[in-house]
UniProtKB/TrEMBL annotation:
Job of this protein: Thiol-specific peroxidase that catalyzes the reduction of hydrogen peroxide and organic hydroperoxides to water and alcohols, respectively. Plays a role in cell protection against oxidative stress by detoxifying peroxides.
Active site, UniProt feature: 65
Keyword Oxidoreductase annotated: yes
HAMAP family xrefs: Tpx
Taxonomic superkingdom: Bacteria
Protein name (database record): Thiol peroxidase
Gene3D superfamilies given in the database record: Glutaredoxin
Keywords: Antioxidant, Disulfide bond, Oxidoreductase, Peroxidase, Redox-active center
InterPro entries in alphabetical order: Redoxin (IPR013740), Thioredoxin-like_sf (IPR036249), Thioredoxin_domain (IPR013766), TPX (IPR002065), Tpx_Peroxidase_subfamily (IPR050455)
Subunit structure: Homodimer.
PANTHER family with a match to the protein in the record: THIOL PEROXIDASE (PTHR43110:SF1)
Catalysis performed (reactions): a hydroperoxide + [thioredoxin]-dithiol = an alcohol + [thioredoxin]-disulfide + H2O
Length: 172
């Protein structure tokens, strides 16, 4: 069974259990498989040679997740061609596509962890109680080394956008 971490995160003050290891700065980024569409999947190697900002949101249809994804979509335009911004959630690819169209979000790549929760378990963000991925940010360099990590302790709070963007800018 995967490693369980309790007492490190909460939803509205109530403790939740995260499944998987804690990824740390300096680690080799864990590989993962997620869906771009219902049938097409991608993994870490599909983004080889690029700096990757991975924004993890529990569900795109909530206020904080919406704001987080819009913010990184705005930032993506100024980060250059060597950077890719990925948003991972357990929403279906259909829901992600619908939301992006309605929100005018077109610079981030939406990825769905709905089938196997492979990303959530590899990065230690899968929430046992809800079947969602915990809000978090990972910046991975072009050689797939983790350079920045933010695991939020409260699911309903915003990440530190400036620190994440600065971590990306330091790599390009």
């Amino acid at each position: 069974m995967s490693q369980e971490r309790t007492g490190v995160a909460a939803f509205k003050g109530n403790p939740i259990t995260l499944i998987g290891p804690e990824v740390k700065v300096g680690d080799q980024a864990p590989d993962f498989t997620v869906n771009k569409s219902l049938v097409d999947s991608v993994s870490l190697k599909d983004f080889a040679g690029k700096v990757k900002l991975i924004s993890v949101v529990p569900s795109i249809d909530t206020g904080v997740c919406d704001a987080q994804t819009r913010r990184f979509n705005e930032e993506a335009a100024s980060l250059g061609d060597n950077v890719i911004v990925l948003t991972v959630s357990v929403d279906t690819p259909f829901a992600q596509s619908r939301w992006c169209g309605a929100a005018g979000v077109d610079k981030v790549v939406m990825l769905s962890d709905f089938k196997s929760h492979d990303f959530g378990q590899a990065y230690g963000v899968y929430i046992k109680e809800f079947g969602l991925d915990m809000r978090s940010i990972f910046v991975i360099d072009a050689n797939d080394k983790v350079q920045y990590v933010e695991y939020l302790s409260e699911m309903t709070e915003h990440p530190n956008y400036e620190q994440a963007i600065n971590a990306v800018k330091a790599l390009v």
